[in-house]
Sequence to fold (380 residues):
Amino acid sequence: MNHKDPRKKFFLCYFESTRKCNLNCRYCMAKEPRSKPKDHTTELSTEEIKRLVVDEIRKYCSHGAIAFSGGEHLLRPDALEILEYTAKAGLWSFINTNGTLLTSDLLKRVKTATGGKVIFVFSLNSILPTIQKWSRDDSLWTVIKAARLCLKAGVNFFFITTISKSNLKSFSTTVNFLKLKKIPMLRSPFVTRGMGNCHQELALTPEDMKNIIHPVLRNYALSYVSYTPFFAGPEFLEDKWKEMNVEIDQLGCQAARGFVGISAEGHVAPCVHLLDNNLKCGNVRDIALTAILRDNEIIKAVRSRETLKGKCGRCRYKQTCGGCRALAYYKTGDYMAEDPTCFFEPVDETTRSEHEELQNKNTTRFLEFIKTREPWKSLF
Ligand SMILES: C[S@@+](CC[C@H](N)C(=O)[O-])C[C@H]1O[C@@H](n2cnc3c(N)ncnc32)[C@H](O)[C@@H]1O
Ligand code: SF4
Ligand code: SF4
Fold:
């Protein structure tokens, strides 16, 4: 597989544009514990965002996208100006939001600013109100109402579900609801970043993955396939990319491949979950983002996967899965260590997972979906 020119592939920059937020969710990774308040004056300014983030992403991948997250991007006074600038640069915007500020008027303004090149991403950890409320400092109905507003206005949206011990019990009910409505979902693993560090007890185990999470994810083809462990056969994928001419850079862990994370203060990490740590990938104020993506040793190691350790290093699915680099880091301090939530036990590269056939089949369905449906068709 050729990973020498990642710019040809779909690319998403996950940018936490501010740490300000109007909610205070229990284990929010973007928030520091109260004892360490953040200084918002160090956040990137409007002009810095345009020049150091948007322009650089356009250079790196002219058909890419920026996911504006936070904190709450919509709290920035320049939120619409930045979205408009991104669209004019030819890029799509994702808006990862808690949905509290969304009104039909704001939706209209966002739609106009982006020329429709926008996708809202709402956080839905559980379709059961009490479980949602435990991890989100808000009622379930906020994101449901926000999704309805999008439906009415013809604006794209999907849900992101952060999986931790707190919502395992309702995970299958939640995904079944989304499946019924044919709404795509993305899974995000709980990590001990920021306030997450005060909730180590919520971290997932290989048993959770094997018995609850993986069976649910592998049976829903529209759960975006960027999860680990992911057992699509390498030969199968190689053929599929060519056959379907898909501009996506592998499946499984997308860190430093399909995406990169940038903090409100401009620090870069291979994945948003790895921000605010000791990984020295550089700051966009000091080094151009395109140079960081091209030259940084951490980014290159995570992208190539050649030096993965433990079972990820000897696994048949090293290139189609790679193991979650963030979970590896938080468990061991080593971002190249094996994924601590994986239940697969490869002896060497010849060991096959019993799930390979099903994951190949579902990957085909997922690829057919993104190749034929807007907005995904335009993105990939
Ligand atoms: C930090 S929030 C920012 C965007 C917006 N305010 C929201 O809540 O959707 C982005 C996503 O990160 C998820 N998240 C928060 N804390 C996390 C943690 N400790 N581990 C993994 N994901 C986390 C949230 O559930 C949300 O889907
Ligand atoms: S998860 Fe989102 S809504 Fe909740 S506190 Fe963090 S940034 Fe705010
Ligand atoms: S061992 Fe690592 S690369 Fe292999 S399936 Fe598990 S997480 Fe993925």
